[in-house]
Amino acid sequence: MAKKSKKAKKKLPMAYKPIGFVLGWTSGTVAGMAFQKTWKVIRHEDDAPDALDRDRRWGEILLAAAIQGAIFAVVRSAVDRAGAKAIERSTGTWPVPDKGGRD
What we know:
By secondary structure, this protein is mainly alpha-helical. 74% of the residues lie in helices and 0% in strands. It is built from 2 helices and no strands. α1 packs antiparallel against α2 (58-91). 10% of the residues are buried. The chain crosses the membrane at residues 58-79.
């Protein structure tokens, strides 16, 4: 019986990959929407500056990039953690076999 349980634990990370992909895509979409709303509140503009936007100053571009990166990291971590906890609750096994996770 212990052998079967070990085999199931080895298969789980592979089975989690498509779920992790969907969660990653979803978290990116949610983070993008959150960033757009945040930028609109901060600067009262519909569009955030792009690095190649000639009419924007360095400060605006770097501020937007920092805010976007922070939001993306928080949303990604929250979605990854929620997905892993859901897998653990439903299967009894953590989806990543070793410590440290993806990064």
